[in-house]
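Figure-free illustration: sequence to structure, shown twice.
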Amino acid sequence: MAKREERKPRVQNDGFDKVTVEVRRVAKVVKGGRTLRISALVVVGNKKGQIGFGIGKAIEANEAIEKATQQAKKNLITVPIVNDTIPHEVVGKYSATSILMLPSKQGNGIIAGGAARIVLELSGIKNITAKKHGSNNKINAVRATFEGLKSLRTAEQIAELRGKSVEEI
C-alpha cells in the first residue's frame, strides 16, 4: 500500500499556517454556454488555538485560494485547549454532516479523517478522536467541525458565567 501523501501547511509571515483543503471547478450555465470558475476551501491556523476557514471563488485557482485565505483570516475563532486536548466531548452539526469529537489521553494523537483532521491539526489540538457522520462534503465537514469547536467551554468559563468558583461546579 502506498503511503498517503501528507498536506504540508504553508507558513505565512503572520504566524498562520495555510492549508488548501479543496479546489473545485464549478460551472454556471447561462444563455451563451457555461462559465467556469474555481472554488477553493482554505483553513488557516496558528497551532495555538486560533483557527479560521474561508471559501473563495475566482476564474483562476490562485486568485480563489487568495480570496479564501483573506476570508479565513477575517473569520478566526479561539479554541480552548486543555492538556493538548479539548475540555469535553462535543458534537458539531452543519447541514447533513455531524462530527463527534472526544477528548483523548496524552499520546493518542489526532484520530480523525479528511477535512476534520486538517482543522484539528491547525488548531493546535494534539490528542483527540473524531468521527464524521452523514455527508462526505468537505465544506460541510469543515463547517461542522468549526461549530463543534465554537461550542467548547472550559470549566473556568462556565464557572464565570454562573458566578461561582470552579470548585463549586
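We now fold a second protein in the same way, so the two outputs can be compared directly.
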Amino acid sequence: MNYSGVTQGSYFSITYFDEDGRRFENEIDSIFEAVDNSVSLWNENSIIRRVNRNEDVVVDQIFKDNFEWSRKASEFSGGAFDATIGPLVSAWGFHYKKELEMTPEMVDSIRQLVDYRKIEIVNDKVVKANPNMTLDFNAVAQGYTADLVGKLLETNGIYNYLVDVGGEIMARGTKPNGEQWVIGIERPAENFDSERSVQIRLNLKDKGIVTSGNYRKYIEKDGVRYSHSIDPKSGYPAPQNLLSATVIAENATWADCLASVCMLVGRDKAIELLEHEKDVEAYFIYVEDGKIKTSTHRLKTPQLTD
C-alpha cells in the first residue's frame, strides 16, 4: 500500500505491506493533524504558538514528548541543541524569510532569551524564566511524526513499512521479496533550487534515518550565505565545514535530533559525541581544502553507490 501527500509544510510518503489490504489514510491524517495542532509553528492556533504567546494553555502528550526529546538532545550536546533557539532563528529570518538586518547588539540581546534550562513543564503547563522566551521543535517534530505513523502501523500488526515525513524516515522490516529498503542520500547542491541528485544509497532495516544539511536551508545577503543552524551560545549561524550529516538511529526522532546536533557542532565534535551512542551510525559530507569529501562513523549498513 502507498499513501503520499503534503504535511507540515513538506511531503510525506508511506509504503507498507499488509496481506489484508487495509488502508489507514484517515488514521494517518489524524496523526498529522494532531502534530500540527500541537507543535507546528505554521499553525497560528497550535499549542506551541499559544505557549510562545504566553497564553494559558495545557500542553498535550505530543508537546511533552517533543519537549523531552529536545531536552535530551540539549543535554547530550552540551547545549548546542536548544529548543529555545526560536527568537534567534526568527531574528535571522529563517522562519519567515525576512530581510537580514542583524547587528552584534541585536544578537547579544536576543541571545539572553535562549537557554533550555530556563523553561520547563509544570502540571502540564509551560513555565518560563522570561516571558519572551519561545520554543521551536522543528528539529524534532517530523522525525517524531514518522515514528508515530510507524507505531500506528505496528499497532495494527504491520511490521514491514517505510515512513518518510519530509525526509525524516523510519524503516521497519523488508519488502515482500526480502530485500531491504534503500535510502538515497542527496548530493550537496550549489544553490537551494539546484536539481537534486544522489550521493550514495544505503540499505536500511529497523532504523530511523535523517539527513540535515546547510546547502539548501540558508539566507543570503551581500553575497554571504548564512546557515540555518544557529549556535545558541554565540547567537550566530554555526561556523563549520559540514555540508550535511546523515544519522541512523533506533528511531527517527532521535536521528532527527542527532542530525541537527551534528550540523551545529561540526564533524569532529559530532564524531566525538556519537561515540557515546553505540547503536548510532553516521555519514558526513564536508568541505576540506576547498574540496567536498565524505566520511563515515561506525557505518555498518551495506553501501550502494551510483
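Summary for the second example: Helices lie at 25-39, 47-52, 61-76, 86-92, 104-111, 141-155, 252-265, 267-274.
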